[in-house]
Structures are given as C-alpha cells and as structure tokens.
Amino acid sequence: MQTQRYQHVGSYPHEQARRASRRLLGLPPDADVGEIDRLAGELRWLTCARGDALCRQGEPSDALFVLVSGRALAVYRDLATEQSRVVGEIQPGEMIGEMGMLTGEPRSTSVVCWRDSEVLSLDRQAFERIISANPRALMAISQAVIQRQRRQITRGQAAATSTVSTVAILPAGGDDGASLGAFSELLAAALGQHGVTRHVSVAQLPPGISEALTHGTGDLRMRGWLDELERVSRFVILQADPAPTQWSEWCIRQADRILLVAQSNSPPGLGRLEQQAQSLGAIDVAIVQQDLVLLQPAVDRLPIGTGAWLKPRVGQVHGHHHVHLGTPATVERVARFIAGRAIGLALGGGGARGFAHIGVIRALREAGVPVDVVAGTSMGSVIGAECALGWSVGEMNRRNRHAFIDQHPLRDYTLPMVAANSGRAAARMLRGLFGEVEIEDLWSTYVAISSNMTRASVAAHSTGLLRKYVRASIAVPGILPPVAEGGELLVDGGVLNNVPADIVRGLVGTGSVIAVDVNPREGLHASEDYGEILNGWEVAWRRFSPLARALEVPTIYDVLERMTMLGSIHQAAMTVQPTADLYLHPPTDMVRFLDFSRLDEHAQRGYEFARPLVDAWAQRSGNARSVRWSTG
Prior knowledge:
By secondary structure, this protein is α/β, with parallel strands linked by helices. It is built from 21 helices and 24 strands. Helix 4 crosses helix 5, helix 15 runs antiparallel to helix 16 and helix 16 packs across helix 17.
C-alpha cells in the first residue's frame, strides 16, 4: 500500500478531502471553509491496490479512515478455527475504524481493499485534537457507528453480501472476443430495467481518460472518472479488450463481478485474460465472483458440451449461463443475477402430491414471473427438471401421464433384500423423460437434491447426468434401492431436505425464493385401534372380503414415505418458511403417495390455489420478504 501526506493534487482529491472533513466534523455543506480546510490538512491520502489491508484484526486502533473511492471488506478471523469470513462491506464515503478510535480497543476485524481504492487517513493524535476542539465531530462519528449497527441488524446476512456495481466483460477460452460488444450492449439494456446503466469500452473513453490510461492504470483521473460514473449510475459495464492490455487489466481491477463470455463452439481452455483475472482478482479472504456466459447458436435446442467449459474452471467460476443473443429473455436472466433480482423455485417431495407443482409453475408463467433457478427434491426434482427443460404445462401433463400412469415406476417388485423394487422401471421411466441430458446443459440453473447415507449429508447435484441424479432424489428408502456413486449411497433428498429453499437462497442471494411444500401436515390414520399386533393376511382379507368391514391402515409404501418426510415437516416451519419470500402449501393433504392416476386433478388443484397468491405476490414483490400462505 502506497501512502503520502495529503496534498492539493487538483480539484478531485481536494474536494474529496473536504467532503470527508465535513462528515467527520458533522458540518453542513455551507459550513466555514477555513475550519474544513484545517481538518483537510491533517488527512493523509492513501492509494491502495486490490488486496491491500488498511488495518488488521487485533492491532491497535491508531487511525481512522474514510473510503473515498473503490470498495473494502471487513473480515473477521475466528482464532479457534483459523477460518476467515466477510462480515461487512464498506462503500465510498463510509468511515473505517471509528469504533476502535472511540473505545481504544484493538481492531475487531481486518479491513481489506476489495478494489483499487483511495482512502483518507487520520491518526489518533489528530483525531483526539479534533474531538477536543469540535464536540460535533464526536456526535457525527457516534452516529456513523449507530447507523452501521442498525444496517447490519436490518439487513442481517445480506450485510455481508457484495453489492454489484461495476461488471467487467472478458473473453473466455479461445474466443476471439468478436461478440463482446454485442453481448455488452444487450446486457446494458437488460440491466437498465433495474437501474441506470452505462456501458464503456476503450473506444468510448473520453479523450482525457484515454490520455490518463497511457500514464498507467493508477492515474487518479481514471479513478475519479469511474467514481463519477458509479455515482450517477446503478451499474457500470466495462467491456475489456479481446487481449491483455492496460485497459483490460484496469477493467479487471475495478470489477465487482466478472463475466467470462465465449461462443460455445470455441476452444474451452483457459484464455489469457482469464488467467490474468485469476491473479488480479484474488485477495486474502475473497475472490471477485466470476461467471461463465456461453453464447449459443440456437435457442430451440439444448446446449451441449458445457462440462468441457466447466472442468478447467472448477473453483474459479461461481455459475454459468447460456445466452442466445437473439433471445432477450436469456440476457435478462443474467441481468437479474447481477442485479440481485434472480428468482428461484424450490419444489418439495411428496409422491403424487408433487403433481401440484405443475399447477404452480403454470400460475407463475401466467403471472409473468420468470424462474431463473429450480431446485427439487424427490418428485420436486422430476417436475423441476421438466421446468428447467422449458417444457410447456401441456407437455408436462402428457409426458408425466405416460411415465407415471401408463408405465408406473414402482411395479418391478423384487426380493426385498434392499428395497421392494429393483429400480429398473424407475430408471427406464427417467431415461424416457430425460434421455442423456446433462444438468449443466439446461437453459436454467437446476439442482437435484439427494441424501448421502454414507456421509449423513445433503447432496446438491448441479452437474452430471440428469436422470441419474433425479433417480437418486426419488429413491425413497425401502421402496427404491439407493444409487451407488463412488462407494457412497444416495437416497431420497426428503430424508434431510424435502423443500430445498436454503439451496435456492444460496444461488439467488438477495433475489427471491418461492418454496412449494406438498408434504401433508398430518396423515396416516388407522380406522380402529387394532392393538399391538397387525397381521397382513387379516388386513388383506378384511379389505377384499364382502363379509368383513375393511381395516383402513397405511400401506408399507405410505409408512416408508411418511418416515422419509417426517423430519422435513419440522424443517418447513423452522427453516423453509423463514427463508422463502413466497411459501406455498397447496391443499394436497388428502392425496395418497401413489395416487398417480389423478394427475390432472392434482395439477389443477395446485394451479387454483397458487394463481391468486402468485398474482398478489408478483404485484408486491418489491416489498419485504416472508409473504406466505398455507392451507394449515
């Protein structure tokens, strides 16, 4: 980190120092200029590169800082586990270290520059002189502390989520960068729906900034220019050159988010700018989020070969998007992720009750609510995959009717050493539905949830053969055998996470989560108290004999399914509902687990329940979270 005594270096730093002085002193804009300039003379001007530490946890609180430009992260290190985590983000104009200066205690966190930044610093001696001479300064600093604490309480976990403002667009792999301009322009238009957006390439730089670039990427004029752009815009898109240049490096260093863009048919190996982004983007505790954008030649067929792009970027890219430049909806989806407005759908398990998901999807589409992420458990994984494939509601009904009614996946009984069914019929059904499609080749982000019996953990499958991981997600213990993978056993996701709203929340961040729970709150009764012993032959005789009154008890399938879901019923109240922005529990309690024959009825029930509630939520989706409705 470079430091220098504050000097009047043109109007840009001088005005920033005055602005910081007014804030420290708690003075209005029309206050005495002499008093402001005296404080400005005490300040030091710090030029910091991405990754520089302004202060470190545990060190003495010997200075106060004001972030002039750029961005910084507050990082807490747990000394017991030696793990670090981001606990806050500092924006331009905010103070750093003011609490330690007031209390005299050591730094409670480290503060690291997230981007190239300009900072003003005030040491302790000068701070104490100012506090003694100007009581208003103490009040202003105390108010800053209170406001920050209030923001953290109000925003909760979102306080530690980076606010995307500046996005760098880089070519990926062996792409020649010829489509960067077209994609950047479309993205700027899509982001414009969420706030004022400016798109800048090197050819669009003002003359003075072009000249400043020739002096190096640390020129104050460039930072001042970007500060002004960010001040008047919600988003700034920096389109890098196709090859490594000073402009490309500067774009990477200033980015809050990096999009790696390539034609899907170009060579998938790491490109030169990607490698530069890896080295420039990394800091001690966080890495600038990078997403892969693959430009597809057609929108009427599924992408292919995405795995070849993801393999060399494991641990580098956070997610990937498929875009067709002639289809605005595919670009708008990327824009929603950047703007923190992505919408995710969590579909729960429940056997035939899961056909209600088809009705909910119909309601969402009719209300114009886009679905950017789908995560499903058990039957929710089946319907969620169909949603991610882009099937129409009519196609879902038709193909599920053939799969679950005409074929029926649970009639290949076997010697029940592991399960009542061999799984052959279920595998054949899923092959007919999904063929050889890979999850990463779906147009929308999709996750199938299973439970890893070996590790006693939730498994979230976002890549790999779609039908394989849907098969794992529907493997109700005792009914279908587990799916074996690498010696580990995968069973129905409902054992540990029946409505994966938390998984969806992790993918959409500050966006919206819609959770659909079809698990009955109450179920499985007996028509009479039969005591401690129940003979299966007696149950069968009473059920089919005209001379006896039937004994209504759950079948073994009902019992196994209910056991699988019991923990998730408690989970829905404790974690799913607080996580979701819209929680829906359609009236499906009366539907039996294997009642596939009434598919259309179940789907219609889900639609009739969801449509008015989805409409109401869509109209007020800009309001607070936790709008939810349930049948009980």
